[in-house]
Structures are given as structure tokens and as C-alpha cells.
Specification:
Layout (H helix, E strand, L loop, with lengths): L32 E3 L23 H9 L10 H14 L3 H20 L3 H20 L12 H21 L10 E6 L2 E10 L7 E6 L3 E3 L7 E2 L4 E7 L17 E15 L2 E9 L6 E4 L2 E4 L2 E2 L1 H8 L2 H15 L9 E4 L8 E6 L10 H7 L3 H4 L2 E7 L6 H19 L11 E6 L1 H7 L3 E2 L5 H4 L11 H11 L7 E7 L11 H10 L4 H13 L8 H4 L13 H7 L1 E2 L4 E8 L5 H5 L11 H4 L6 E6 L9 H22 L4 H4 L29 H4 L11
Parallel strand pairs: 3-9, 14-15, 14-16, 16-18, 18-20, 20-21
Antiparallel strand pairs: 1-5, 2-3, 4-7, 6-12, 7-8, 8-9, 10-11, 13-15, 17-19
């Protein structure tokens, strides 16, 4: 598993308002990951791995060695000490001896690896893993070991770190193949390791694995890491031919979180040990089962996300924000809906819609935090929408309407997935207008904005007639149940003034097909259109002006009765620099409170943040979480499904969660009896003489 070097990635990071200018935008030369000089190791402190004296056993292990007259007997040579300790274990097994054995074996592996003996190092690491496993799970030590003992957590770190060290040696290219058996010879014992994948992705979708410990996250406020057993990994999704309808919605270079857990199984053949290396997707399950007991997995959801955001493929999508504003023609191929998690029919879609001069990158703070709540990630799937913001928002709304219909026909042609009818749209700024147009009935109100004559009088070819009809005549989407708008200029923004609109019309190149089609319609239908400018030179900036005729029509339109609207209004913090220079005191610096306010909504909250960061503010994220939980409760009531998997988690903190029935034991069930030490633990080097 080779670490990856990161060339200075460039991305357009956040939706930044330029006070004088043409847009709301931001650009920064910053990435999401820093490659560490050496992997993070939780044992560095307890075992003094970087001390001047070199790695040393912990004080507790030294006490055990002293008690059995083993301390300092063989210097740095772990083999003879482990051989004596193994002999004592056979006659008088105790949890303290098992722990000391695991620790010394790990230190022996470090020394062997430093000396260039990879084979011997692998032997030692395997012994450390198996003895740490015994310390944690052998029922003979049930009454002696205590989860309150710091050594218990250290045993977990020994298990995880030894397993990671062994995986680095055994599979340096990161290409462990799920579904295959990997035989390993350690000492005079053969170990058959079956690699098993558990998750919503398919086994052949894992191209390679990288270690989370090789990287440090930056430019995401929170790193969501949970503690337990296993090695957190980054799984890079392979590029393969589309095999199911959802494949077309996954971006290239996608990576996702997995955790590797090695389960030691009883021997079925003399001289042979069986193990299952379980590669588990923590979005699907946070626990594994050992001896009918739930064991939490060590997980990291943020680092794999940061790895994906740093890929050249996704960085190109990030940079599309500028092209999408200035030249929508060049972004048409990349626009549309995409997913960063496997499509699952039972999960409710949450679609993020960005604003002007922005891209889905703007949602990564919220996505990272929302997914950290188990009750959300286990019941919701997150989708993103990318569209060219240089064109009028009602044109983008028509495209979103069509894209939502297409994805539904593609992934659920028979309408057999009721969760897809509980969709939630979460939208920032102009994206809120694009989203609200998915939930209202147009009647002929929008057509009357451009013409006093009935639509049937329009003379046009079939394609042009259909395109115009989709823009001005529409029904609410029956699958959308909640829309949450954040910092949206429902009544326009004064930043879309005469100067910025003039400048925008000279810089922004509207889609060629759209412009030529509309010019042709105007020439073919003299006197039909009330204001031809609405069809020819209107840009995304024009569409947000306070005098935009579309805005009052949206405010007065009939909203679908099954849709609940929620609203978040931004107000600049009192001590903010932006507030001191803003022309309006009650605004987020771009959108006034009066413009952002909505009447008749199910909820409206005020967040003290500027326009560029309001959707990344913790209060906004918690409000989105509240709306999602309400939606899940409603879904549970309407569908008559058992509420336990949802309600059991709602309002429960991470520390109090317990696994549910759906978090089933992984592929190969754990034995009911861990078994004798000598059968399970592969001996490290120098122990062969005592067998």
C-alpha cells in the first residue's frame, strides 16, 4: 500500500462574494491532505518508539518480565524472552502474560523490520496480533481483564498497529483481493487468510487500499474518527465498465472508508491456522461480532473523503465553478447529478444544490459532519448537483427537474423504492431558487412573465417548443418532501446591481444552443414576447436582481402540499469585518434578512455567519440534521416499518450507541470458544525449538 504524493492541488473552495464584482466566488491553493513523514502510531508514546534509548516495553510489561526473571536477560533480542514467556503461558496462562507477549512481539517486529528482515518481522507482527486478540477475547480472562484498565486500550492499539504493520509487509502495493484466500507461512505454521468484503460496494470495485495513518487531514474542520478494533483504510474505487444503472453517477477517482479486522478462527487442520481478514464499510456497519459480542470497529470517515477531494479528477470538477459561471457551454458535459456513496434503495436521498460561482465542493464540511451521525448515514444517502451558474436559475431548475426524472427512471424504473419518495433538497443561495422551483406548480404564471399571449400561439419546431415548455410549465416533483434553503435571495440581492449585471453580460457566455434557439424564437414570433431580454441576454447574475420578474412569481406560486419548506437566514456576526463595511446592517453580507426571509415555512432559524460560510456553520448543520431526522420519523410512520433502527439512535450520543439487529455478524461467524493459546497464536521466530 504505497503512499501517494500530492502535487499542489488547486480548487475553488468557497462561495465568496466580491463586493464590486461580477460574482460570488472563491479560489484558494489548498488541498485536503498532507502526507505524513511517518505513519501515525498510537504506540509511539507508551512504547517510547522515538526515544533516544529506542523502543522499550511499557512499565506494566517490564513488571511482568521482572516478576518472571526475564527483564534484561537477552538485551534487545526478543526471541529467547518470548520463548520463555510462551512456555510459562502453556503452564499458567494469564491475561498479563498474554499482553506482555503481544507487546514484546510487536517490538521484535519493529527491530526485525529495521534490520531489513521482512520475513521475521512478519512473524513477530502476526504473533503480536494473535496474542492481543487473545487478551481481548479469550473467555478464560473474562473476570481478570477490565475495560477500565488503560492496558485494555493499549491492547486494542497493539492489535491495530501490529495488523497494520503486517499488512504493509505482506501487501505493499495495497492490492488485497476480497473473495480470495491468501496463504501465509509463519514459522512452521501455515495461516490461511480469507479476505472477505462487507459493504454496499462490490468486491471488484476495490482497486487498491491506502492507510489512513499515512495522511493528515486539512481544510476540513472536523475529522470523524471512532475508536475500536481494526485498521482504518482508504479504498480506491476501480474504474470499470458500467454494470448497473447507478454506475454512471459515480465520479472517477472515488474513494471510500473501510476497516480491516482480522478474525482468528479455531484450527481445523494440524499445523494450520485459519483467519478471516474482514474489510468492512463503516457506513454500513460500525460493529463486528466476536463470540456473540458486539465489538466496535476503528473507523475514519473523513480521511478517505479528503483523499477523494484531492484527486485530480475531482479537483477538475471543483475548478468548473468558474467555467460554469463564465462559460456554461464548456461545463455541460460535467454538469448533472452524482453520488459519492453506493446507491441503496432503502436510503432516503439528500441532494445538495450549490449557489452562484460555486460547486459541490462547498458542501463538503456539511457532508462530512452529517455523515458522522450514525442515525443519518445509516438511513440517508447523499447526492450532489453540479450546474452552470452563469445561466438564469430557472434554466438550471428545468435541467434539475429533468435530471431528477432521469435518475429515478434509471435506478428505480419500477417505482419499487419508497425511500426515493422522501427526498430532501438542501440548497445554498441561488441553489435555493433552483430547488424551490422543483416543488411548486407553475400554472401559466411564469409564461405570463414573458408573454401576454397563450403558449399555443408559439410558432416553433418541436424541440424548441418542448424546451421552452419545460422551462415555464412544470409540476411539483412528487418525490420531494422537504426543501431547506440557506442564505437564499428569495427577493433578490442588491449585489446584482446595474454595474455587476452589465459586467456579467460582457463576461458570461450563455449556452450557445440556448441563445441561438431563443433568438430564433424571437424572430419567428414577432410581438409574442413581452421582454425578449429574458430569453437572450439574461445571465445568472441578472436572474438574482431584486427586480427579476421571476422572484415574485416563485413567492406567490402554489407549493405542493406534501412538501415542507425550511429556511436558514444569515446575519453577520457583530464583531465581523464584513458587517462593518456592509451597506445593510441586517444581512449576511450579500443577502439581506428581508430578502432571505420566507413566510409560511415549517421552520426558519437565524445563523450568525456570513454568506460564504453560513452553510458550513455548526448551527446550520444541526438544523439540517434536525430536518433529516424529522423526515426519517415521518417515513417510518407512513411506511409502517419497525421504528427501532431509527428511533433507537435519534438523540443518542455516539458513546451510548449499541449495535442493532441489522449490524449482523460478518461473513464467517466467530467461534463460541476462543480455543487454546498454542493453537491460535502463531509462534514468533526462535520459538520453534520448544515445540
Amino acid at each position: 500500500m504505497r503512499p501517494r504524493s500530492h502535487a499542489a492541488p488547486i480548487r475553488f473552495s468557497r462561495f465568496v462574494q466580491i463586493g464590486l464584482g461580477v460574482a460570488l466566488a472563491g479560489c484558494a491553493n489548498q488541498g485536503y491532505l498532507i502526507e505524513r513523514n511517518s505513519p501515525f502510531n498510537p504506540l509511539a508514546g507508551p512504547l517510547k518508539l522515538v526515544s533516544r534509548e529506542g523502543p522499550q516495553p511499557s512499565a506494566r510489561s517490564q513488571q511482568i518480565l521482572r516478576r518472571y526473571d526475564l527483564l534484561g536477560r537477552h538485551g534487545n533480542d526478543a526471541g529467547p524472552v518470548l520463548a520463555r514467556l510462551q512456555e510459562d503461558l502453556r503452564h499458567e496462562p494469564t491475561h498479563e502474560k498474554v499482553y506482555a507477549f503481544a507487546e514484546l512481539a510487536y517490538l521484535g517486529g519493529l527491530r526485525a523490520q529495521h534490520e531489513g528482515d521482512a520475513k521475521q518481522a512478519l512473524d513477530y507482527y502476526a504473533a503480536a496480533v494473535s496474542h492481543a486478540y487473545l487478551y481481548l477475547f479469550d473467555r478464560r480472562f473474562e473476570s481478570a481483564r477490565s475495560a477500565y484498565d488503560p492496558v485494555f486500550r493499549q491492547a486494542c492499539d497493539l492489535y491495530n498497529t501490529s495488523l497494520e504493520s503486517a499488512l504493509r509487509l505482506y501487501c505493499p502495493d495495497g492490492r488485497l483481493r476480497p473473495g480470495r484466500r491468501h496463504p501465509i507461512t509463519i514459522g512452521n505454521r501455515r495461516i490461511d487468510v480469507d479476505v472477505v468484503f462487507q459493504g454496499a460496494w462490490k468486491e471488484d470495485e476495490i482497486e487498491r487500499l491506502e492507510f489512513v495513518s499515512d495522511f493528515q487531514v486539512e481544510n476540513l474542520s472536523n475529522r470523524h474518527h471512532t475508536y475500536g478494533l481494526g485498521v482504518p483504510l482508504i479504498a480506491i474505487r476501480s474504474s470499470r465498465e458500467a454494470r448497473d444503472p447507478a454506475d454512471g453517477y459515480y465520479p472517477p477517482g472515488l474513494s471510500f472508508a473501510v476497516t480491516a479486522f482480522l478474525r482468528v478462527l479455531p484450527d481445523t487442520t494440524e499445523g494450520r491456522t485459519s483467519c478471516a481478514l474482514e474489510i468492512t464499510d463503516p457506513v454500513v456497519s460500525r460493529f463486528t461480532m466476536v463470540d456473540a459480542r458486539p465489538v466496535p470497529l476503528e473507523t475514519d470517515l473523513t480521511t478517505p473523503l479528503a483523499y477523494f477531494l484531492d484527486t485530480p479528477e475531482f479537483n477538475r470538477k471543483a475548478n468548473i465553478a468558474t467555467l460554469g459561471l463564465l462559460n456554461p457551454n464548456r461545463t455541460e458535459r460535467d454538469s448533472g447529478l452524482f453520488m459519492v456513496e453506493p446507491y441503496q434503495p432503502g436510503k432516503v436521498p439528500v441532494l445538495f444544490v450549490h449557489g452562484l460561482w460555486s460547486s459541490p465542493m462547498t458542501w463538503m464540511e456539511m457532508f462530512n459532519d452529517l455523515r458522522s451521525f450514525p442515525e443519518i448515514r445509516e438511513r440517508c444517502q447523499f447526492w450532489f448537483y453540479l450546474y452552470p451558474t452563469g445561466q438564469p436559475f430557472w434554466v438550471s431548475a428545468a435541467q434539475l427537474r429533468e435530471d431528477l426524472a432521469n435518475v429515478r427512471r434509471s435506478i428505480d424504473p419500477g417505482g419499487a423504492a419508497p425511500a426515493l419518495d422522501r427526498m430532501v433538497l438542501v440548497a445554498h443561495s441561488m441553489g435555493g431558487l433552483v430547488s424551490r422551483l422543483q416543488t411548486i406548480e407553475s400554472g401559466d404564471d411564469f409564461w405570463k412573465i414573458v408573454s401576454d399571449r397563450p403558449f399555443k400561439d408559439l410558432r416553433a419546431d418541436d424541440a424548441s417548443r418542448e424546451a421552452l415548455a419545460k422551462t415555464y410549465f412544470f409540476e411539483p416533483n412528487p418525490s420531494i418532501r422537504h426543501v431547506l434553503t440557506i442564505g437564499t435571495p428569495h427577493r433578490g440581492s442588491s449585489y446584482a446591481n446595474d454595474y455587476t449585471r452589465w459586467l456579467g453580460r460582457r463576461l458570461i457566455r450563455l449556452p450557445t444552443m440556448l441563445v441561438s434557439r431563443n433568438q430564433r424564437l424571437i424572430l419567428t414570433n414577432p410581438g409574442l414576447f413581452r421582454d425578449p431580454e429574458l430569453l437572450t441576454i439574461n445571465t445568472g447574475i441578472d436572474s438574482l436582481a431584486p427586480d427579476s420578474p421571476m422572484l415574485p412569481a416563485i413567492l406567490s406560486a402554489n407549493q405542493a402540499p406534501w412538501v415542507q419548506c425550511h429556511n436558514i437566514v444569515g446575519v453577520l456576526p457583530d464583531d465581523g469585518i464584513a458587517k462593518r463595511i456592509a451597506s445593510e446592517s441586517e444581512s449576511d453580507g450579500v443577502v439581506t434578512v428581508a430578502s432571505a426571509h420566507l413566510d409560511g415555512v415549517a421552520s426558519e432559524v437565524v445563523v450568525h455567519a456570513d454568506h460564504t460560510t453560513i452553510h458550513q456553520h455548526p448551527r446550520a448543520i444541526l438544523e439540517v440534521r434536525r430536518v433529516l431526522l424529522d423526515n426519517l420519523r415521518e417515513f417510518a410512520r407512513e411506511s409502517g416499518s419497525p421504528p427501532a433502527p431509527i428511533s433507537a439512535r435519534i438523540g443518542i450520543s455516539d458513546g451510548a450507541e449499541t449495535p442493532t439487529a441489522r449490524e449482523r455478524p460478518l461473513a464467517r461467524p466467530a467461534p463460541t470458544d476462543i480455543g487454546p493459546l498454542e493453537e491460535l497464536a502463531p509462534p514468533p521466530p526462535n520459538l520453534r525449538s520448544i515445540e
